[in-house]
């Protein structure tokens, strides 16, 4: 069984759906039971890290970038697994130094993300890590931020992909690894 399949099985077993959160009509995917289970956490980190390796298993990224807030939880262990650094993408006003900013539409509102201008060096290859790929707005905004720094997004890795939404279209041309399509 592949690392992606093991990660997907852990998600099937432990993710909890929370109806009408954060607003009516939204089904929130609570990943905290996955994080609390050591074996499940190891499985999902291993599955996500496959997106940062080539077909021979060699690491082909220089950095992992995780989006606030659950990308902060998942990204650092993926970066450790790959032996590369981690860079956070934050909500507006949370970074202390000069940053690039992008405002984008969410499935239920609008948000602004920021990335330190020197967080990714020109030419660095980046793996984006987050919990859910839905409309793709967060991933596309983060890709834009990385590219403004001169970096190249080479892959996106997520726990869940909401396949009834156009998330992949928002990051067209970038391979997406989803441990569990739903």
UniProtKB/TrEMBL annotation:
Its UniProt pathway annotation is: Purine metabolism; AMP biosynthesis via salvage pathway; AMP from adenine: step 1/1
State where the protein is found: Cytoplasm
EC category name: transferase
Major place of localization? cytoplasm
CDD domains on file:
PRTases_typeI
The catalytic activity of this protein is classed by the Enzyme Commission as 2.4.2.7
Cite the entry's keywords alphabetically: Cytoplasm, Glycosyltransferase, Purine salvage, Transferase
| InterPro entries documented for this protein | Ade_phspho_trans (IPR005764), PRTase-like (IPR029057), PRTase_dom (IPR000836), UPRTase/APRTase (IPR050054)
Q: Which GO terms describe its molecular function?
A: adenine phosphoribosyltransferase activity
Query: Pfam families, per this entry?
Result: Pribosyltran
Reactions catalysed, as given in the entry: AMP + diphosphate = 5-phospho-alpha-D-ribose 1-diphosphate + adenine
What is the role of the protein in this entry? Answer: Catalyzes a salvage reaction resulting in the formation of AMP, that is energically less costly than de novo synthesis.
Q: How does it assemble?
A: Homodimer.
Q: Which family does it belong to?
A: Belongs to the purine/pyrimidine phosphoribosyltransferase family.
Record-given protein name: Adenine phosphoribosyltransferase
Organism annotation: Nocardioides aquaticus
Upper lineage ranks?
Bacteria, Bacillati, Actinomycetota, Actinomycetes, Propionibacteriales
